[in-house]
Amino acid sequence: MSVRTRIAPSPTGDPHVGTAYIALFNQCFAQAQGGQFILRIEDTDRQRSTPESEKVILDSLRWLGLDWQEGPDVGGPHGPYRQSERGDIYRAYCDELVERGHAFHCYRTAQELEQLREALRESGRIALKPGDLALPLEEVEKRRAGGMPFVVRLQVPESGTCVIEDLLRGPIEIDWAQVDAQILLKSDGMPTYHLANVVDDHLMEITHVLRGEEWISSAPKHKLLYEYLGWEMPVLCHLPLLRNPDKTKLSKRKNPTSILYYQRAGFMPEALLNYLARMGWSMPDEREKFALEDMLEHFDIQRVSLGGPVFDVEKLSWLNGLWIRELGDELLADRLTDWLFNRENLLKVLPFARERMETFGDFAPLVSFLASGKLDLTEESFTGNRLALDEQKRLLQFALWRLEALRAWDRDSIFQAVKGLAASMGIKLKDFNAPLFVAISGTTTSFSVMDAMVLLGPELSRARLRQAIGTLGGAGKKVLKRWEKEYAVLA
Fold first, then answer.
1. Beta carbons within 10 angstroms of residue 87's beta carbon
2. Quick check: is 119 in a domain?
3. Which of 52, 67, 446, 467 is the most buried (most CB within 10 A)?
4. Any domain includes 104
5. Would you say residue 46 has pLDDT above 90?
């Protein structure tokens, strides 16, 4: 059978560099062996999934140079490739599991579940087992007759050891006592990741599953499902997680994680893909700079290192510089034009710059912040504002949380979010906007900060707010927890 791998991103937010990292290794593993790489969309979260996010994910992965042979945008013989369009398939297999006694209807309420979990914590146990969740038969019938909502959960062993074979790590032993009775079908009839993942991988004939190591703890549940359904399990390979420089899991609080940030900040897609390839993998000759074609030619999954790869933006910038310096002048001019310096972008900026211009020479200084990645900020940049520096830092963190929650990124949405937050914090809008101006443009004399954020886009705008918070000293865990409580009250 031909090697078939897949990536299954969720269209619920910005396209993450971690998604591109996993996609890259799946593509290389499959294509290096003449196989196929498939993309499907995990959009069973009805509240958070959007078509816009799906499009951005596909566009971002294409921008990087990744390619798939089957998917929602290109079709294929194993569709549909959106999980939201496969509900009947999942429900049929879920019913089969219930009929065979491998899954059960759970009518427990949220309050009852919390009480059960509290009792587990007090007894030193971790996982809820089928026995913990069982109700008397008459109570089950009563709740069913009353039309009470239910979920479908997986039958799991109470004790013993599950052995998972991993392509890189060898056998991994996991105690069944740590594995809970996983929900397979939610009360709204939509599957969880665990059921949909197993069913889709089988029906799409996936032979190898390359995914992040955070899924190791879920592997026993998946192995059970394969056994219960009588299917052969794909070969598993858990890749090391990307890390921040302090070795914590890569997070947007400490590093820009959106592919769109790097695209908007002026990184070359070849360089970003090159850097992601270097995350835990190396060419036989150990060279730093190489193209996707080179990686495909020499790819060997056994060259993956299991140590936590550190995503260092400074190292990425250095590598990006190597790529830029190898471009000829003509090609570099084309790249700069495609990136930002084109007529379409110019026409977006001119309405805001014109009113502040007296000569053409005023234009570049006025809008230079739009063509920058990070700004050259210091604490002194904020000292001219009326609010104390600590209050400005708190304000910027609250603004970041509010803007991270925005679904639409347009002037009116941003303005209403900022205005509402300023009012709830009891701060005049002018005083509230002052640190935002500095964080976004590096000055207090730019054109409207709302318009500036629209032009920069959400990823770069939020990254600049995080940079400004860091410039003002950042916030420790205790302070952040206190602020989170205060923000929750305001929200």
1. 15
2. yes
3. 446
4. yes
5. no
In the predicted model, what is the mean pLDDT of residues 163-178?
97
Annotated binding site for ATP: 252
Q: CATH number for the domain including 150?
A: 3.90.800.10
Tell me if 219 is assigned to some domain: no
Q: Which residue has the tokens 């060898």?
A: 170
Put simply, whether the predicted model's pTM sits higher than 0.90 gets the answer yes
Distance CA 21, CA 281 (A): 11
Element (H, E) at 437: helix 429-441
Question: In sequence order, which residues have a C-beta less than 8 Å from that of residue 95 and are 6 or more positions away?
Answer: none
Please identify, among 158, 191, 224, the residue that sits at the C-terminal boundary of a domain. Answer: 191
CA 98 to the chain's CA centroid? 33
User: What is the helix (H) or strand (E) element at residue 23, kind and residue range?
Assistant: helix 17-31
Q: How many domains does the chain have?
A: 2
Whole-angstrom CA distances from 267 to 324, 352, 473 are 9, 26, 27
What confidence tens digit (pLDDT) does each residue in 418-451 have?
A: 999 999 999 999 999 999 999 999 988 788 999 9
137 inside domain: yes
Locus of tokens 């963190």 = 397
| Domain of residue 155, residue span | 89-191
CATH at residue 480 = 1.10.10.350
d(CA 309, CA 245): 9
Tell me, yes or no, if 348 is annotated catalytic.
no
CB 5 within 8 A of CB 71: no
Of 191, 215, 236, the position where a domain reaches its end is 191
Of the chain, the percentage scoring pLDDT greater than 70 comes to 100
* Marked catalytic residue, from 252, 315, 393, 478: 252
- Token pair 């087992």 in the structure block, residue: 129
Q: Are 273 and 292 in contact (CB under 8 A)?
A: yes
Binding-site residues, please?
A: 252
Of 115, 463, 27, the C-alpha closest to 267 is 463
Q: How far apart are the C-alpha atoms of 84 and 424, rounded to whole Å?
A: 38
